Each structure stands twice: as structure tokens, then as C-alpha cells.
Amino acid sequence: MREFLENHIDIIIGYLFGAGGIITALTERKKRRQELVKGETQNQQQVVDLYQEALDDLKKRYDEKFSELECEIKQLRTNLDLWKGKYLDLKDEFEKYKSDDLTSEV
Predict the structure, then answer these.
(1) Which of 29, 37, 82, 106 could serve as a FRET partner for 23 with CA atoms 20 to 30 Å apart?
(2) How far apart are CA 80 and CA 86, in angstroms?
(3) What is the spatial distance between Cα 85 and Cα 87, in angstroms, rounded to a whole number?
(4) Domain total for the chain?
């Protein structure tokens, strides 16, 4: 047996290191796979965070724009009421002028 071991020691050691290499490669492969999954999860979370931030910013912008438009609508309605009042005053004044002019002709 000793003679067999002495003659084939290099082959036996090669197999042992080869088996150790295979075991190491398998564990490294699992570790790399876990790191990839972890990296993908982090990337997906970053994408979700970016979308959430964009949606929050979009809501804020539209709320601000909506408020501005509401103020502008109020101002336009006020101006409309003012112009309606001016129109009615001028119309009444014209009607009065017309009726005065007709009574003076008779």
C-alpha cells in the first residue's frame, strides 16, 4: 500500500486539490449569484425610489399650477363682473340719452 501511495502520490494530491478547487468554485459561484441578486434588488429599489420621487415632484408641481390657475380664474371672473357692470352702466346711459333725445324732438 505504501508503495502504491508513493508511486501515485502526485495523482492523489492532484485529485485532492482538484476537488478542493471544485468545492471552492461552487461556493464562489453561490456567493456571486447572491451578490448579483442583492445588486438587482438594490437597483430595483433605486428605480422604485426614483419613480416615487418623480411622482411626488409631479404632484407638487400640479398642485402649485392648479392653485395658480384657480387664482387666475378668480381674477378673470372679477374682471368679467367689472366689465359687465361697465357695459350695463354705459347701456343704461345710452338708453337714457336716447330717450332724452326722443323726448326733446317731440
Answers:
(1) 37
(2) 10
(3) 5
(4) 1
Q: Mind listing the pLDDT tens digit for each residue in 30-40?
A: 888 888 889 89
**Tens digit of pLDDT for each residue in 41-78?**
999 999 999 999 988 888 888 999 999 999 999 999 99
Range of the domain at 12: 1-105
Q: What's the pTM value of the predicted model, to 2 decimals? A: 0.46
Ordered DSSP codes for 16-32: HHHHHHHHHHHHHHHHH
Three-state SS at 1 = coil
Burial status of residue 62 (CB atoms within 10 A of its CB: 0-12, 13-18, 19 or more): exposed
How many CB atoms lie under 10 A from the CB of residue 14? 11
Please tell me the distance from the alpha carbon of residue 70 to that of residue 38, in angstroms, as a whole number. 48
In angstroms, the first-to-last Cα distance of the chain is 150
